């Protein structure tokens, strides 16, 4: 009886071992969820686990969820007491797109030639929770740690008052930025703008929303609003490559980083521009806004007739120095005055323009005497006090000590001068009697036939035949030169527009439109390219590549800038004439270099 008992126990033990061995050889393919109930602001991790390696893994469509990351694979293999343990996992990180009950449907895989499917599981998505849990993805970390901010110095400036915009990229110390690329640069419509170059990108310590961050200044620009009311500053957009640390470590224990690309934007900014008050506005107000000093000086106050002196009208200080017109002196008609020479010494910083601008007039007196240069007034609006201010120069007396007097000119028959015309002084021997008796001599009779003229006309056709042949060949060569003909037509077109600009002197808008077309057509003629769609920076680069000297290139770009500024700023006839003369000079210099 005892022997039979032992046999039964042995059989039962052997059966158990056999069944256990069969279980270990069985293929398993299961789905595991990090949670079965989560808030709409939480993340769900789904693992598909198998105990043997397989192929042709086919995940479900994850209806009701957005895949943030995956599939990522993990493989673990170990030996224990001679038994091998193997596991392979496909992992996904999901974000719910709506509230409700959803099903994680079946996934499939082929293992040892057979297809296995996982069971479907139900997940409930509730309202957002206060403290979301779950593993954050690389994109989640990048979103929370990367911010592009446009810092505006003033959101309610006056018309033509300076404001600055500084674009800063804030980066959390937990991540690093390896590269960035601008996607869309803002266009500052209704603003006069000037970039302040960032010479070197250097990270600085700061805070963002009360947390420690590092930041880099990417772009700085100074703006002068040219229109009152609500104006939009378009956003700056960047594509940034971000390195985010993960919880994984390499063979040596170092943290493994994951890289992702993120698009960040500074967002639109609205500026409310206040109109300049009409109360107290002086009649001579020319649009100057800022804090200025005004002076009128002369190089000398005592000289002889026909000598020259310089009278300088100068405005210095801080404000929109490039955007207003200088007052003009009202001088006696007996002084000959030449067109002024404009000088500009302005630098632009984040606080705006500062420096000085001036007009220098060359004055030549014709007669002896004392000539007053009357007081000149200059008015501007001060944003700090929100009031208009008026500055006046002192009267300057010019003493001409030697030269003809205006009275003696009248006695000798001088014609009084008008404007800047010189006087004409008559003498006593300018008119004489006409002689009535002529001194004519007989030249005799001439014969055409046999004369020198006869033989010249006879030989003329023989000379014209080879000349006609040479001219015909030259015309054929010119007609076949398609590129050359295009260049000639473009040259004619450039001269046409420059001529039109000259005709439009005094008409600001038409003059600068014609001048801009002339400049572009000149480049088209010389370089055989279309420049109408080029920016000033591209044109400057192109001229540098063509080895045009810096002075000539800067003069050309300055003319294009004046053509743009003329849309928003008052320009005098003097400035137009200077720009026209400068255009002729620049084209002449570029002809020599190109």
Automatic annotation (TrEMBL):
**The UniProt record lists the keyword Transmembrane:** yes
The cross-references to InterPro entries, in alphabetical order and at most eight, read: BatD (IPR025738)
Question: What are the UniProt keywords, alphabetically?
Answer: Membrane, Signal, Transmembrane, Transmembrane helix
Q: Where are the transmembrane segments?
A: 454-472
Residues annotated as signal peptide: 1-21
**Domain of life of the source:** Bacteria
List the coiled-coil residues.
Answer: none
Name by which UniProt lists this protein = Oxygen tolerance
Q: Which organism is it from?
A: Kriegella aquimaris
């Amino acid at each position: 009886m005892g022997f039979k008992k032992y046999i039964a126990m042995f059989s039962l033990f052997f059966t158990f071992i056999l069944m256990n061995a069969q279980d270990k050889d069985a293929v398993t393919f299961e789905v595991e969820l990090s949670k079965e109930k989560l808030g709409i602001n939480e993340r769900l991790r789904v693992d598909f686990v198998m105990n043997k390696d397989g192929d042709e893994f086919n995940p479900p469509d994850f209806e009701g969820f957005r895949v943030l990351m995956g599939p990522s694979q993990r493989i673990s293999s170990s030996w224990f007491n001679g038994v091998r343990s193997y596991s392979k996992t496909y992992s996904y990180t999901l974000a719910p797109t709506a509230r409700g009950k959803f099903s994680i449907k079946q996934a499939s895989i082929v293992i040892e030639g057979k297809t296995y499917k996982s069971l479907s599981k139900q997940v409930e998505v509730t309202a957002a929770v206060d403290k979301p849990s779950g593993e954050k993805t690389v994109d989640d970390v990048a979103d929370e740690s990367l911010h592009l901010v446009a810092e505006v110095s003033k959101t309610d400036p006056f018309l033509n008052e300076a404001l600055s915009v500084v674009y800063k990229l804030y980066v959390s110390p937990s991540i690093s930025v390896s590269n960035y690329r601008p996607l869309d640069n803002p266009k500052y419509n209704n603003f006069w703008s000037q970039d302040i170059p960032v010479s070197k990108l250097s990270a600085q310590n700061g805070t963002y929303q009360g947390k420690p961050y590092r930041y880099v200044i990417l772009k700085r620009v100074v703006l002068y609003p040219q229109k009152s009311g609500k104006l939009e500053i378009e956003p700056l957009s960047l594509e940034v490559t971000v390195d985010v640390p993960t919880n994984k470590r390499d063979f040596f224990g170092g943290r493994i980083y994951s890289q992702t690309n993120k698009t960040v934007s500074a967002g639109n900014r609205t500026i409310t521009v206040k109109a300049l008050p009409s109360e107290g506005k002086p009649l001579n107000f020319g649009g100057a806004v800022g804090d200025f000093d005004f002076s009128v000086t002369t190089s000398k106050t005592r000289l002889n007739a026909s000598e020259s002196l310089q009278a300088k009208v100068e405005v210095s200080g801080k404000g929109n120095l490039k955007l207003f017109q200088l007052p003009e002196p009202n001088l006696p008609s007996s002084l000959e005055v030449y067109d002024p020479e404009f000088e500009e010494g302005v630098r632009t910083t984040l606080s705006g323009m500062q420096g000085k601008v001036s007009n220098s007039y060359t004055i030549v007196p014709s007669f002896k005497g004392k000539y007053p240069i009357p007081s000149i007034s200059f008015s501007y609006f001060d944003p700090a006090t929100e009031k208009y201010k008026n500055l006046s120069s002192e009267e300057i007396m010019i003493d001409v000590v030697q030269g003809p007097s205006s009275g003696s000119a009248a006695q000798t028959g001088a014609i009084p001068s008008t404007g800047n015309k010189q006087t004409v002084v008559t003498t006593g021997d300018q008119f004489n009697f006409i002689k009535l008796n002529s001194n004519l001599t007989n030249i005799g009779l001439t014969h055409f036939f046999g004369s020198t003229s006869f033989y010249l006309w006879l030989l003329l056709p023989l000379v014209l035949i080879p000349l006609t042949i040479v001219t015909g060949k030259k015309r054929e060569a010119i007609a076949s030169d398609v590129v050359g003909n295009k260049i000639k037509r473009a040259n004619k077109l450039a001269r046409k527009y420059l001529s039109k600009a000259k005709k439009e002197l005094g008409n600001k808008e038409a003059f600068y439109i014609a001048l801009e077309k002339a400049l572009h057509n000149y480049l088209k003629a010389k370089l055989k390219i279309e420049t109408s769609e080029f920016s000033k920076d591209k044109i400057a680069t192109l001229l540098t590549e063509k080895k045009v000297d810096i002075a000539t290139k800067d003069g050309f770009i300055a003319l294009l800038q004046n053509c743009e500024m003329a849309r928003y700023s008052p320009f005098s006839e003097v400035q137009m004439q200077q720009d026209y003369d400068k255009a002729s000079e620049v084209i002449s210099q570029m002809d020599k270099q190109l």
